[in-house]
Amino acid sequence: MWSRRQGRLRPLRCGMEELRCRRREQEAALRKARREQQLVSKRLLRDEASEEAEEACVAVILGEAEIQQFLRLAQRGSEEKEREKALVSLRRGLQHPETQQTFIRLEGSIQTLVGLLTSNQALLQLGAARCLHELSHSEQSAVAEACLPATSYLLTYLSGHSSDFIELCLYTLGNLIVESEAVRRQLLPQGIVPALAACIQSPHLTVLEALGYALSQLLQAKEAPEKIIPFASADSSVLGSTLPQHMLQLLHPGPKLNLGVAVEFAWCLHYIICSQVNNALLITHGALSTLGLLLLDLAGAVQRTRDAGLELLACPVLRCLSNLLTEAAVEAVGTHPQLRDERVVAALFILLDFFLQKQPSLLPEGLWLLNNLTANSPSFCTSLLSLDLIEPLLQLLSVSNVVSVLVLTVLCNVAEKGPAYCQHLWPGPLLPSLLDTLTFSDTEAVAQSLELLQLLFLYQPGAAQAFLQQSGLQALKRHEEVAQLHDRVHALQQTALRG
Q1: The model's pTM
Q2: Entry's PANTHER family (predicted)?
């Protein structure tokens, strides 16, 4: 969530050091934000060819007798085709929540399915796995917990040779993981982390994408920061395994970068970073460098094509960078050329323009990163000015209240750097824009505007007089909560006149 940053003007007798100290405190509070996590979800993997072949069959709700008949045929049918067809009919019935509930109440049903899953006939194994997959997609935690006897076998099959079967097992595990803590308690000692770490070296993109999904579900568990992510014995934790290094390799821009795979693992990285367990380790592994290069690559991609899928990757990449910057010391960031190059700022504005046209809801993500880049870095503030990006930034003020507050926060970061920066900001297009923001109904945007004004008044002697000449006083007086500023502005006017 966004933390609320309360900007209030204090008496102007406060010194420059006090103002800087106050801004540092506000910035520290603000930068604790951006810990949002993607809502958990489930995915249903169905074979398109099978679906088309079965299109004529209508999936019906099954009763106990019908379920028992299909299980009996799947176990003891006289012909293999008959056994396979029974599993297909059972799977179609399990698409209904009512059938799922009946199935798990039926004694021995899961055990029969597990027996078929472990048979030596590949098609029967696949049919049983698809039935389990339908059950895993249930919204009822009791259904997921009923599948517990199958989890150890699903993990075992992750080391198999069929990429399609591994993919199915991964999506099923991912669905089960997110539904129940009981499932996760069983999977961890069974070795789910080492099993997933082994899968990440698969040459099959479908397996890697399914792996990213399953891992992201595991990382979103409420107990992940304590029990799943931190270092533990051997490879039983995510940070203790080879997963982080391989994830970063899969996110490295280049001809082998796959959008679907990259999206999944970018979210995985985001959840690890949000846990704040050991972000220094990720930086040591080159996370900042990789993400910086990926940001540049994304900006180049949106210039070449307006593919609607690119924002799916841009969102977690921006969040990862934003949150890592709140952890890393300024000196550590400076050691990565990709993050002190002004191309990063240019790339970010290319993405902001892309979001504005295609996905305005993602504008706060880009502006949050810009805020974290400029908060403690004069070089990034210099890049904003030298690349003439203040006016494009101001054009975003009217998008929404959240966006306007972030834009003003970035401008405060620039102004806080001192007189030389304020000289470039003022007056230019900033003055009319500030007069407009003071008429906003959003109190947070108004408060941020006032903070920016105070910084400008402090560092730019002529700013107060110019502001008053442009009817700034009337704009201030329209806000009851800042009516007390009336006398201070008059005092500023007198000071400016005497100067």
Answers
A1: 0.84
A2: TRANSMEMBRANE AND COILED-COIL DOMAIN-CONTAINING PROTEIN 6, TRANSMEMBRANE AND COILED-COIL DOMAIN-CONTAINING PROTEIN 6 TMCO6
